[in-house]
């Protein structure tokens, strides 16, 4: 139960950061951002990266087991892909 609550807090924090970055970049770029697909892609990439970094930092700080397990699964899958002919 504790891990689930900590996960939810981390996800909410990352979502807040993504929303804040999206809002801030929208102010900087201007209201015409919705018309420019490249700018929207750039804005989404920046927001996604910021949210990901916040969640990774949060999970490392609190030593959440889900992050380590997910990372181990991803590394294992990549290793299997390299070995496959």
Extract low-pLDDT stretches.
Answer: none
**What does the overall shape look like?**
flat
Please outline the major beta sheet. none
Gyration radius (Cα, Å) is 17 Å
**Count of individual helical segments:** 3
Give the amount of beta strand, in percent: under 5%
- The total of beta strands comes to 0
Query: Averaging pLDDT over every residue, what do you get?
Result: 84
Class of secondary structure makeup: mainly alpha
Lay out the secondary structure.
Blueprint: H1 2-29, H2 37-62, H3 65-83
Helix pairs in contact: 1-2
Keywords, separated by commas or semicolons:
single chain, 85 residues, mainly alpha, 3 helices, 86% helix, 0% strand
What does this structure look like?
It contains 3 helices and no strands. The N and C termini lie far apart (42 Å). It is an all-alpha fold and 85 residues long. The chain is 86% helix and 0% strand.
Task: State the gist of this model.
With 85 residues, this protein is an all-alpha fold.
């Amino acid at each position: 139960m504790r891990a689930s609550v900590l996960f939810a807090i981390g996800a909410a924090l990352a979502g807040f950061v993504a929303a804040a970055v999206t809002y801030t970049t929208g102010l900087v770029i201007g209201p015409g951002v919705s018309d420019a697909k490249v700018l929207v892609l750039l804005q989404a990439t920046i927001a996604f990266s910021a949210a990901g970094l916040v969640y990774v930092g949060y999970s490392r700080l609190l030593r959440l087991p889900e992050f380590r397990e997910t990372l181990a699964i991803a590394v294992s899958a990549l290793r299997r892909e390299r070995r496959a002919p």
